[in-house]
């Protein structure tokens, strides 16, 4: 029991992790006149204290206690209360009159991490000023008709990490200002497109980690900025699933089972900068699916089943900067596939594929990073042009913490680092030429001679350390 505290001119009081089990009715009497924030976090209180009159208190935080109920008129003496946090307690039910005295002034309500199993609809409706409501980490299985209504200023609603299997089409009524809706980590097999489209101001929708097998339609949701649908069971992106979302910047579809994207699946998304499609089942890419994404910068296609790409696949992406094609089983890249990329394009991940070589003309303009780890590169004459391109443009082919790329074949170059290859081949060619001229065939060309022929080699460090000795001329 906390005794009556002495008079102090305090505006904020925090008692955190002190094991307090109860608060005396008179504990705060001499502080009540000026106190604006009271935080009694991580204690052992089993009930909400009787606070008496605190005319200026705006924020009350009772997180991480053992409170099991919210009695009627518990906050009657707090006429200015705007923020109420009851996170991680043991509240499993709410009486019909709980919170009634706060409905005209509360702006934030946090009941997350409790054991509520039924949406307390009558209690939660009619908050005139409520802007943030957090009901995450409870035990809800459904949101029934009119589950949330008459919340005219609500901007953010969190229902993530529950057990939701169903949301009624008319579950949300009169919530015109909602901007952020978190529904991730539930068990939803579908959501009604009309319900989603009813949120005219919605900017962020998180439906990740559910069991969705069909993509909702987000057509013409003009304020939408982020959609997260990762870790579901989606197989197809239907035509116009995303269409005319003029502010949409990010779509996350990673870790699904997507094998098909309709030609108009991503339609007229002028501000989209990030599209994440990693860990799906795509086998081929039609360049037309990217045709109306003029500002796309980051495209992740890691771990699909794409075996080849051609010169039209990414031709319509004038702002592309980062492209991840790693772990696809990629065997062939068509000539011109990366010859007309924008100057912004600096990162191409081709690691862990089945690439053996590159046809001349696959690359033209400089791409600062072309990651090639985990490919069985055959360093024959067909690869000479690429090695020259790589050396001249100082291309990085592995991350700083990874070993440098080595050739797999032919036998004479197996195990040779890709950046050494030109030196090895130059040395071999010059030695053969010297022998034809009747010079000492055991002598090898000196460093200055090679770097004069191939200036880019000067950037590779000490050529002697690459196995080239000075000739005794």
Automatic annotation (TrEMBL):
InterPro entries: Leu-rich_rpt (IPR001611), Leu-rich_rpt_typical-subtyp (IPR003591), LRR_dom_sf (IPR032675), LRR_TM_domain-containing (IPR050541). SUPFAM superfamilies: L domain-like. Keywords: Leucine-rich repeat, Repeat, Signal. The keyword Signal applies. PROSITE patterns: LRR. It comes from the Eukaryota. Pfam families: LRR_8. GO terms for cellular component: plasma membrane. Signal peptide: none annotated. The keyword Repeat applies. This is Uncharacterized protein.
């Amino acid at each position: 029991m906390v005794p009556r505290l002495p008079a102090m001119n305090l505006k904020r009081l925090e008692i955190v992790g002190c094991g307090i089990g109860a608060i005396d009715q008179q504990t705060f009497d001499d502080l009540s006149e000026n106190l604006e924030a009271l935080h009694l976090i991580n204690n052992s209180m089993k009930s909400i204290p009787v606070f008496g009159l605190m005319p200026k208190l705006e924020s009350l935080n009772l997180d991480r206690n053992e409170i099991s109920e919210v009695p009627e008129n518990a906050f009657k003496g707090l006429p200015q209360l705007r923020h109420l946090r009851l996170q991680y307690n043991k509240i499993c039910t709410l009486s019909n009159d709980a919170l009634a005295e706060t409905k005209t002034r509360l702006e934030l309500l946090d009941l997350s991490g409790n054991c509520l199993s039924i949406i307390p609809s009558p209690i939660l409706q009619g908050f005139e000023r409520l802007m943030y409501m957090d009901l995450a980490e409870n035990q809800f299985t459904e949101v029934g008709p009119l589950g949330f209504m008459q919340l005219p200023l609500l901007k953010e609603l969190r229902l993530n990490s529950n057990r939701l299997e169903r949301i009624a089409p008319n579950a949300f009524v009169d919530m015109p200002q909602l901007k952020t809706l978190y529904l991730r980590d539930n068990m939803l097999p579908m959501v009604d497109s009309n319900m989603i489209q009813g949120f005219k101001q919605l900017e962020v929708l998180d439906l990740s980690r559910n069991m969705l097998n069909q993509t909702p339609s987000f057509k013409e949701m003009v304020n939408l900025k982020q959609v997260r649908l990762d870790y579901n069971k989606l197989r197809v992106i239907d035509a116009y699933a995303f269409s005319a979302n003029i502010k949409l910047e990010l779509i996350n579809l990673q870790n699904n089972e997507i094998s098909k994207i309709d030609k108009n699946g991503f339609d007229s998304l002028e501000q989209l900068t990030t599209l994440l499609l990693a860990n799906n089942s795509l086998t081929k890419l039609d360049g037309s699916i990217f045709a109306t994404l003029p500002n796309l910068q980051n495209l992740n296609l890691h771990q699909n089943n794409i075996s080849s790409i051609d010169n039209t696949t990414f031709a319509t992406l004038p702002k592309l900067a980062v492209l991840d094609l790693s772990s696809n089983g990629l065997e062939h890249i068509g000539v011109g596939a990366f010859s007309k990329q924008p100057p912004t394009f600096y990162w191409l991940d081709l690691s862990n594929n089945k690439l053996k070589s590159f046809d001349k003309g696959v690359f033209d303009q400089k791409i600062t990073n072309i990651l090639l780890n985990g490919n069985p590169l055959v360093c024959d004459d067909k690869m000479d042009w690429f090695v020259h391109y790589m050396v001249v443009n100082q291309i990085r082919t592995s991350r700083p913490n990874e070993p440098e790329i080595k050739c797999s074949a032919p036998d004479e170059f197996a195990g040779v680092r890709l950046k050494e290859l030109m030196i090895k081949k130059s040395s071999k060619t010059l030695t053969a030429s010297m022998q034809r001229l009747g010079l000492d065939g055991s002598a090898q060309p000196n460093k200055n001679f090679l770097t004069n022929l191939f200036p880019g080699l000067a950037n590779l460090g000490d050529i002697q350390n690459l196995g080239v000795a000075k000739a005794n001329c």
